[in-house]
Design brief:
The complex is a heterodimer of chains A (about 140) and B (about 230). Chain A is mainly beta. Chain A has a ten-stranded parallel beta barrel. Chain A is elongated. By secondary structure, chain B is mainly β. Chain B has a 15-stranded parallel beta sheet that branches. In chain B, strands 1-2 form a two-stranded antiparallel ribbon. In chain B, strands 3-4 form a two-stranded antiparallel ribbon. Chain B folds into three domains: about 35 residues, no CATH class; about 35 residues; about 140 residues, no CATH class. Chain B is built from one helix and 23 strands. The chains are: A mainly beta (about 140), B mainly beta (about 230). The interface between A and B is medium-sized, with 29 and 30 residues.
Chain lengths: ~140, ~230
Amino acid sequence: MDNMSTATSGSKNVLNSDVEIKGNLKFAGELTFDGKLEGEINTEGVLNLGDSAVITGNINVQSVIVRGKVNGNINAKEKIEIKSKAELFGDIRATKLIVEEGVTFVGRTEVNPNKVTPTAPRPGEAPKIPEAPKPPGR
Amino acid sequence: MPASKQDKVLVACPHCGHQQAEPPTAFSTVCKKCRGHFHVQEVLKPAAKVVEKPRDARRVTCFDCGTELEVPPSAESTMCKRCGRYVDLKDYKITSAVSKNFKTKGAFVVEAKGYVFNTEAFVSDAVIKGRFLGKLVADSLTIYSTAEIKGSFKTARLIIPVANHFRWAESIQVVSAEIAGELANNLQAEQSVVVKSTARLFGDIEASNLVVQEGAVVVGTMRIGPPKPAKA
């Protein structure tokens, strides 16, 4: 499998809808991708998938805006934004998630940056009542 | 000096429609045909018609036949124009222990100190902050953390307000849901689930539409999209 990487960091890269890649993709800065990819995307940058984008593979990014179709898991250190009409089949994990109306999404979501747990007691379980402070000893 | 014929204007009697010449400054006159008295100025310059503002009407549906009824907002009851059934529109606020059935198209609020038991409640907008024991059917249901529901509930729209949490033993089925607080439950919605930025959602979601605002905590398996067409 080939590995493809874009060069300079902080740059804006564009791969149009007539691009088809089989292999992994690495880039720095920002990439707008509107083509087809069979493989993984790994970056510390920002990925912007266009309406015609079709990704079959996992995506590991800083932030991603999803349009088009993704068949694979998305792992974002920061934010995943799923735009209307996007189709996503895979699990997502991120610090922040924004989902617009009209999305098709099947998969597991893990957006819980502070690892909070449910406060509501399970049915039948007594609610957690904080213990009263003990009186000072004599 | 009497007004000449040219100075006169034709006015039509409002009673019989007969037209006769009258001085334009005349205040009132008598119809030469029907002998009816009328005000000339009112005929010449009819007052602008007072357009009745359509009052804010409330739409409710009959409990029995489902006919949509339009009622004034202040109405406390109505009768179905189709099946003649009495429809209660009153709001109920429960602040103490009550054992009674409710059937209203108004609001049904169980305050934190309220306790409704052994009841069947069919209501429009239910807000539960206190204890409820029985069967609840509501168009919209707002549940606060202080709520204690035992029995069953069915609602088209579930609302969990901000800073409130709710958990239920079974999967919840609704038409739509708006989560601004915490919901630790599996949820099935025919239409949309809106997860506000303040929300925490722990559970599996199945819905036609999902909207998640930035900042929300979402943990669970999602199945979002238009429902699959049934196989022939």
